[in-house]
Give the backbone structure.
Amino acid sequence: MDWSALPGDLLRLFSRRLHDPLDFLRFRAVCRTWRSAAAASPPPFLPWLLARPVHPTARPSLSFYSLSSAALRSVAAPSATCCLLGHASSHLLFSDHGHPSNPLLLANPLTGADLPLPPSPFDAFAPITQGYYLPGPDSPVVIYDATRVFFHHPGGGGGESTSPGWTKVPVEDLVAENMYHAGKMFVCNDRGRLTIFDATTLAVLGDAAPPPPPPAATLHGDAFRCSSFVPSGDELLCVIRYFRSKNKAQGELLEDPCALEVHRLEISSEKGAKPRWVQMRSIGDRMLFVGLYQGFSLRAADFAGLEGNCIYFFRMDRASRSFIYRFSMNDGHIDELPGPWMHACTWFVPSLS
């Protein structure tokens, strides 16, 4: 059979169902006919699970698990001394501890492309806790620790910089979570209260009390919650997961996925109305992928065979295996999905751009 003679419409249908970037590249490499029949722009890719980087003296590579192909991938790290700061959709944010100036690097691990960043506003004695970059119109790189938040627009723009190339958000409390979204900076303190900043003027636009906890009878006595901000279209969502101590002597945590909640930030245009979190009983066609901090949203309609109104998350056991779970908001059912024997770090959305 002459595979190059397959109808173009059939080839285009095949190419749109390849939700792993390496499968898409292999499809395009078969022959000239397949390459021309493939979609001009790649189909949306399902996320990969990124393993926690190994000790800096080990072989400099990054390990990923593809949710689409269930394959383990290994991609060369920028250097053996790079420390991963956070997840991103297309790029990973690193800090190079092996360099005297401890520079920041925003790199696409698939293409090797990187975006230049100015020197870090943090010094060696106060290292960055986390960082992230969620590509979009005028989206910045955000880096932060427990008391400070900075952002930088790789393409320019943003507020007035108080440090070379970086804009400092004037937070007054301890920083628990934060998210840049739709021209605003949302910063949650250690008590769960959210402050909203205008990213251009840095003026405070409002604040919101934390979402109310579920009934005490549904939680263990020592339970505490972890919030993950998820930008989804024009909305900002907050996924709340509850944990409790499993083995206090060893610091183990046990998650209670049955208490998982999703809240939407409602910002009213009425004068004097305060922003507030509204619990959602359904997220429609959306699939949310959450880690310990930020998360992201995809449309199930873009992926054949997948259902919306669900949340994907992972957790680890003592054997360092990552268990991937899917929580259905339709009926509260939780499915365990096939997963790798790796110590997961975060979700990552691969990109060929």
About this structure: The helical segments are 8-15, 21-28, 32-37. Residues 248-253 have pLDDT under 50 and may be disordered. The longest strand covers residues 252-266.
